[in-house]
Amino acid sequence: MKYIFKSGILLAQKGNTPLAKMKGDFIGPQKRVFLKDKMPVLKTDIRISEPLPGERRNIHLREYTMADADGNIVSVGKPGYAEGEDPEAAGWPICRMPHVDRADIHMSGKDYVLMMHNSQSYSLRNDGGDVLLQIIHRGLIGGWNIESKVAFQPEILCGLFAFCRYIEQENELMIV
């Protein structure tokens, strides 16, 4: 199945039929996904746990969540450092934050890995390493091509797209 995600709207590539719409708050990471009606069917957010005394803040304290309209968590993503970037093994870099390139996702009783190959290409893999979903930026024309080998619901595709953006935000330069 092929889709286009542009300006917060998920479209079927054939026929340009709007399937879902995603809106974010002006401040904060929360995103809401709407289908045809005006009520959100899914919300994504970043949950941050408090560090233990003496523990540094790191990516392992964050969770990306998808919750249905009733507030039930339907998916949790735990971001992870790129290979060789984990501060517990490699130490903290002096002039930047450690690079994050993945999120381990638990959804519908199954485990997946959402991988950021670069800021314009993502893939979702199952336990066996099979690519189930690819999200690729469309370049100058804007938007994103989404190709799925699995029939994910439109709101789940939007939620996974939000997780991609969360991973990207983890790597943005912090201004102090």
Give a summary of the structure in a few sentences.
The chain has 176 residues and is mainly beta. It has helices at residues 87-90, 154-170, and strands spanning 2-6, 9-12, 18-24, 31-34, 40-48, 62-68, 73-81, 100-107, 110-118, 121-126, 131-137, 144-148.
Summarize the helices and strands and which ones pair or pack.
Elements: E1 2-6, E2 9-12, E3 18-24, E4 31-34, E5 40-48, E6 62-68, E7 73-81, H1 87-90, E8 100-107, E9 110-118, E10 121-126, E11 131-137, E12 144-148, H2 154-170
Antiparallel strand pairs: 1-2, 1-12, 2-3, 3-4, 4-5, 5-6, 6-7, 7-8, 8-9, 9-10, 10-11, 11-12
Report on this structure.
There is one protein chain. The termini are far apart. It contains two helices and twelve strands. The relative contact order is 0.19. The longest helix is centred in the last third of the chain and has 17 residues, at 154-170. Helix content is 12%, strand content 45%. It has 176 residues and is mainly beta. The chain has helices at residues 87-90, 154-170, and strands at 2-6, 9-12, 18-24, 31-34, 40-48, 62-68, 73-81, 100-107, 110-118, 121-126, 131-137, 144-148.
